[in-house]
Amino acid sequence: MVTANGNLNPHEDYRMLLKRIDWNDYERWIEEGRYQAYAKDMFNYAKKFCNLLFSNEFVEMPNCRRKINIQNALANLTRYLDIKFETNLHDSFLQWVGRKGLKWNLGKKPDLYALGQRVKIEDMIKRLKELPESLKLFGAFALVSGLRTLESVAAFNNHDKLCENGIMELFWDRRCKKANAIYCHPLIHERLSKSDFKMSDSKLYKAFRSRLSVQDS
Ligand SMILES: [Zn+2]
């Protein structure tokens, strides 16, 4: 199908280019400047599911983690094709995703800001006081630092390395946040310096998750 300006329809364009992809070259491209595990996933998904781009089969897949991964892999692949073949597939793909109402995330995350507005600080402190000493210390640190949960775990566990004169400088490799500088309260700092307790996912889940859901109900 040829569009008004004489170009091939992007979907047809894409089918033809799929046959010309040098997958070894694509693998080198996707690995450049990306985390290895992420690049490997993106490569495998793209190679396996490239036929799903612009397809009804993809649109009809239930929204799940795998679908989001495939969609991200296809977004990367179209970006590469644009560079190699001077196409405009990446934009076409983004528009197509929008037209079909596809989501870029699972949309199940609770609105923590809204939840935060409903939880009173007094209640939070009361609950913190009920925890064993080491967990209480973590809870106080997380509360005072204002960091996100997993950020506060990383900062807490590396406090001795990162805290200098009560200031912690943290660097993240994320699209929306690159760095934080947080104030480490002297009382918390003193206790942290004496503690060798490390927070883990399982301790975090047991001690804090259930309490959050109780307050959320
Ligand atoms: Zn400190």
Plain-language structure description:
The protein has helices at about 10-20, 25-30, 35-50, 55-60, 65-85, 90-100, 110-120, 120-130, 135-145, 150-155, 160, 185-195, 200-215, and strands at about 165, 165-170, 180-185. It has about 220 residues and is mainly α. The protein has 2 domains: about 10-100, no CATH class; about 110-215, Orthogonal Bundle (hpI Integrase, Chain A). Strands 1-2-3 form a 3-stranded antiparallel β-sheet. A hairpin with a 7-residue loop joins strand 2 (about 165-170) and strand 3. The chain is elongated and about 65 Å long. The termini are far apart. The site of zinc ion has 6 residues, from helix 12.
Short description:
The protein is mainly alpha-helical. The chain folds into two domains: 10-99, no CATH class; 112-216, Intergrase catalytic core (hpI Integrase, Chain A). The protein has helices at residues 10-18, 23-31, 36-49, 56-60, 65-85, 89-99, 112-118, 121-129, 133-145, 149-157, 159-162, 186-194, 201-216, and strands at residues 163-164, 167-171, 179-183.
